[in-house]
Amino acid sequence: MMEKEGPPTFKQRCKQVIAEARELNPNSEAMIGCLAARLVMTQNAMTLHIQRMKKLLQDMEADLCQPKPETKESNSFSLRD
Question: What gap in Å lies between CA 2 and CA 53, rounded to an integer?
Fold first, then answer.
């Protein structure tokens, strides 16, 4: 089986961090649980941030696609002024 190129996925990184913590101190299940919880919270925060950014981009794209009505005000700001 070929390994993927590029950075590890979030799930792979979580497993790696937990495995490293167990190697350092196999009896620290509480610490491992805490680390896992922090990783999940970070993932959730990043997921929300990405969703907000996607929504913002969609809104901006929709604004750009809407035709602007021609008015005297919009014509008053030209490069020739």
Answer: 33
pLDDT in tens, 16-53: 877 887 787 766 777 777 778 888 888 888 999 999 99
Alpha-carbon distance of 26 to 29, in angstroms, equals 7
Q: What separation in angstroms does the CA of 42 have from each of 10, 25, 58, 62, 70?
A: 10, 23, 24, 30, 47
Q: Does an H or E element contain 32, and which?
A: helix 29-65
The residue among 52, 38, 51 whose CA lies nearest residue 10 is 38
Q: Is pTM, for the whole model, over 0.85?
A: no
By the 10 Å C-beta count (0-12 exposed, 13-18 middle, 19+ buried), 35 is classed as middle
